[in-house]
């Protein structure tokens, strides 16, 4: 690589934020700011270098992407860095995040990369990383990559790999490995005939796969936001914006509805009454099925601190156990490996079942929930009615643009005092969770209480304190 090109791809280290680059789910920011071609090329080089050292060999890295307008740019820049490090790149093109994890896990690839900002708006993007088993990178590896990136940012030089350049191959055919894996996870002779199912594809990564899988099983499928559209991905649609899906369910008198996020690693369900069925309900219903079949070790489910108290107490009443982790499916995954649990997930719709895969998978989860409904002979509404009642819960986001303020919010004495006051007032009739998002520039304030009045009161109080002290 010529000196002129190296200079072109070198950036002033001052452009890197002083806070940690890796968040809850890889690296995420507005496209063109931190996540530009220059940054991605150098990041790709150091990711490739660290992955090779872990594998003790050169190998292939799988890259997938969602439909964002910036995803092509970032995928190509990452590929340039990886091939500069001497690695082979298998580019899948448009596909869900769990597809990248599955292909990485079932081939001899030494790592995987997904270009996506998940449920974030179109102007954002992100980069997620997987090891050779399709599991998100451990913190120590992420830190090693970041350390080398920062140390060499002004003097990027790939001369060490001269004459050992890697190659880039476009291999969308490998996506078939993923679809076959999902289909094998379903019970034999599964049939959705007579079921009308609405799918909200969020203009994202699920558009080419989810409709076909449901139609092949005999369902009548109604599609919303069904094209790959980088200008509209997640805009008022998908798993974080359910009003359109709820309206479509009532309009079409459908049996089931599913909404995926931009990279299809999460799903939210809607029943025939337009009622939202979130990850807590999915975990409870799927958990009970596995428990009946003797396929849930220790009757254990792994959830996060966001899981509703109503879910936790209802699961415990069945004799089940629930362990909470920090927010983020990688934390759930780590606890599942540690405990041997086979089912875990998040209220937001990331569901992991180790019987069938190594990552959260929205399409697979939707198919299994539909299968559970088909096998039960009951409607999703009836299954939910016989499960549990949630405690009133409110989650409010306070936008805080300053990274430093977000990362240091716990040092604010007035916020800590307000949280302590609320916790003392509610006692065991509620709980509070305040945290900085690892994927968006917001502080999340969650309040859950035995009644709506308490929930509303303390949410308003805490949001006001966070806004006053951090948002201005």
Automatic annotation (TrEMBL):
CDD domains: GlmM
Phosphoserine PTM positions: 118
Lineage: Bacteria, Bacillati, Cyanobacteriota, Cyanophyceae, Pleurocapsales
Domain Alpha-D-phosphohexomutase alpha/beta/alpha: 20-152, 178-274, 278-391
Cofactor: Mg(2+)
Domain Alpha-D-phosphohexomutase C-terminal, first and last residues per copy: 398-463
Name of the molecule in the record: Phosphoglucosamine mutase
Binding-site residues for Mg(2+), renumbered to this chain: 118, 261, 263, 265
Organism, scientific name: Hyella patelloides LEGE 07179
Family of the protein in this entry: Belongs to the phosphohexose mutase family.
Sorted UniProt keywords: Isomerase, Magnesium, Metal-binding, Phosphoprotein
